Amino acid sequence: MTQSQSRSGTMTALTPQMQECIAACMDCHSMCEETMSSCMQKGGQAQMQVMRALMDCSETTRMCADMMMRRSPMAAEMCAMCAKVCDMCAEACMSMPDDEMMMRCAEACRRCAETCRAMAGAGM
After folding, report:
1. What CATH number is given to the structural domain containing 103?
2. According to the UniProt entry, where is the signal peptide (predicted)?
């Protein structure tokens, strides 16, 4: 999983920066999924804006990690979009400051956004 094919067909290892970003994306994806589950278990009326942000972030981070692992030519652009989605999700989670799970999710989103911004700037 830490290797991919270059254009010439030879296997090249993912850079440590890419591995860190993939791990941050997958951590954020998992955290968003857990947070959505927690919201549903608690019942009540979860804010739709927050739930949409969690869903968008969960899907975007998973797709971003997948694209980096397969060395998609669109990975840098996906990382830039992923950073924006993660920032929006972190802000949405911060709207519920008394919820520990939301605060943990916001932190995971911030970490992911930071690594994705770095990867988008690296141009892969």
Report:
1. 1.20.1270.360
2. none
pLDDT in tens, 93-103: 999 899 999 99
CA distance 58 to 47: 17
Asked if pLDDT for residue 7 goes beyond 70, the answer is no
> What b/e string do you get for 69-105 counting C-beta neighbours within 10 Å, with b at 16 or more?
bebbeebbebbeebbebbbbbbebbeebeebebbeeb
82 is a domain residue: yes
**Encoded amino acid at 35, one letter:** T
Question: Could you read off the pLDDT of 12-38 as tens digits, one per residue?
Answer: 678 899 999 999 999 999 999 999 998
Based on the structure, what is the number of domains in the chain? 1
108, part of any domain: yes
In this prediction, residue 42 carries a pLDDT of 75
Task: Identify whether the C-beta of residue 108 lies closer than 8 Å to the C-beta of residue 27.
Answer: yes
Domain that holds residue 72: 16-122
Which residue, among 118, 92, 93, 84, has the nearest Cα to 16 in the 3D structure? 118
